[in-house]
């Protein structure tokens, strides 16, 4: 896809476009991870990069997530901009020592002398019939860490623009890509190198009756639920949080001030999830605007089940509709 060309692409293709653009325009951007060079990654997000930019900038690594995370820290402190891929989010835990103790703290530790412009990419979430450790949704672990941004695109356009912004950001970003959306839809994306803002929610649909707050893979079901509720005369405002840390609380509070009701939808388990932080923020700062308690539609506090039971674990359109009906009735 040539520069400036407008074309319908999938989310994973949009990731690939953003990587191509930034590597072409910034020679300090390098890509590393398991099977990302010769094979183009397990989901083909990095296909074509090695052929275009060479093995010195597109590097296959050993099966060693701690090495991937730590090598990226060293590269970043010396002027490179590494984009490191973990094959699945469930594999990222071996690298958390480097991410939490070094990447996230480097700017503070050196009083601004060094910083870590790293993007740690990982496919995350369920819905593709994968085994455990391949279907994790543990964004809340990283949202809790000072010094890290946690960004989750939910469409091809946002994947393209947010990944560009993440690579250009001077501090580390955890960039989580919902793999069940990788090829779910196509969207027109202009390959023009324009980034989208980080730390900002996106209002995908205006409404007056209830605010639906979600991110990542659940955006798809949430929009479908909003369509279904519209036939019942209920207008939903749908907000894609996109950057779950730091949170754009202002957009959320303004929406709830208008609608008076909120339902939070996320795939991750309920206990300690990002949804709980959002609910607490609404209780603290929008209490007098709320006409009903905040309701959460989430995964269960269990390990993600194998594929036969995935649908029972993942929030469904009917679950969201039922939750909205519950808060509207109050």
TrEMBL record:
GO MF entry, a single one: oxidoreductase activity
Keyword Oxidoreductase: yes
The entry's keywords: Oxidoreductase, Pyruvate, Thiamine pyrophosphate
PANTHER family reported in the protein's UniProt record: PYRUVATE DEHYDROGENASE E1 COMPONENT BETA SUBUNIT, PYRUVATE DEHYDROGENASE E1 COMPONENT SUBUNIT BETA
Stored InterPro entries: THDP-binding (IPR029061), Transketo_C/PFOR_II (IPR009014), Transketolase-like_Pyr-bd (IPR005475), Transketolase_C (IPR033248)
Entries under SUPFAM superfamilies matching the protein: Thiamin diphosphate-binding fold (THDP-binding), TK C-terminal domain-like
Cofactor(s) the protein requires to work: thiamine diphosphate
Free-text function comment from the UniProt entry: The branched-chain alpha-keto dehydrogenase complex catalyzes the overall conversion of alpha-keto acids to acyl-CoA and CO(2). It contains multiple copies of three enzymatic components: branched-chain alpha-keto acid decarboxylase (E1), lipoamide acyltransferase (E2) and lipoamide dehydrogenase (E3).
Organism, scientific name: Marinobacter pelagius
Residues covered by the Transketolase-like pyrimidine-binding domain: 9-184
Protein name: 2-oxoisovalerate dehydrogenase subunit beta
Keyword check for Oxidoreductase: yes
One protein family per Pfam: Transketolase_C
């Amino acid at each position: 896809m040539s520069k400036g060309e407008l074309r319908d692409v999938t989310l994973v293709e949009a990731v690939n476009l953003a990587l191509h653009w930034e590597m072409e325009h910034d020679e300090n951007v390098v890509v590393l991870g398991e099977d990302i060079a010769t094979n183009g990654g397990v989901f083909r997000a990095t296909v074509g990069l090695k052929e275009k930019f060479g093995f010195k900038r597109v590097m296959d690594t050993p099966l060693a997530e701690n090495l991937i995370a730590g090598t990226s820290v060293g590269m970043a402190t010396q002027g490179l901009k590494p984009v490191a891929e973990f094959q699945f989010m469930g594999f990222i835990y071996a690298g958390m020592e480097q991410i939490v103790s070094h990447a996230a703290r480097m700017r503070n530790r050196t009083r601004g002398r060094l910083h870590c412009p790293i993007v740690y990419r990982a496919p995350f979430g369920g819905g593709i019939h994968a085994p455990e450790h391949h279907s994790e949704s543990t964004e809340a672990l990283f949202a809790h860490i000072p010094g890290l941004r946690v960004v989750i695109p939910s469409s091809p356009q946002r994947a393209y623009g947010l990944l560009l912004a993440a690579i250009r950001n001077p501090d580390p970003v955890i960039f989580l890509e919902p793999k069940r959306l990788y090829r779910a839809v196509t969207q027109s994306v202009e390959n023009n190198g324009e980034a989208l803002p980080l730390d900002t929610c996106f209002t995908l649909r205006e409404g007056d009756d209830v605010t639906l707050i979600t991110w990542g893979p659940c955006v798809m079901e949430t929009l479908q639920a909003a369509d279904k509720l519209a036939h019942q005369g209920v207008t939903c405002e749908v907000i894609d949080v996109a950057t779950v840390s730091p949170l754009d609380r202002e957009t959320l509070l303004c929406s709830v001030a208008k609608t008076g009701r909120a339902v939070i939808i996320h795939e991750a388990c309920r206990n300690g999830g990002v949804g709980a932080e959002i609910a607490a923020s609404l209780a603290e700062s929008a209490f007098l605007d709320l006409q009903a308690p905040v309701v959460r539609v989430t995964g269960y506090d269990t390990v993600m089940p194998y594929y036969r039971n995935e649908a029972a674990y993942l929030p469904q359109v009917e679950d969201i509709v039922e939750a909205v009906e519950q808060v509207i009735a109050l």
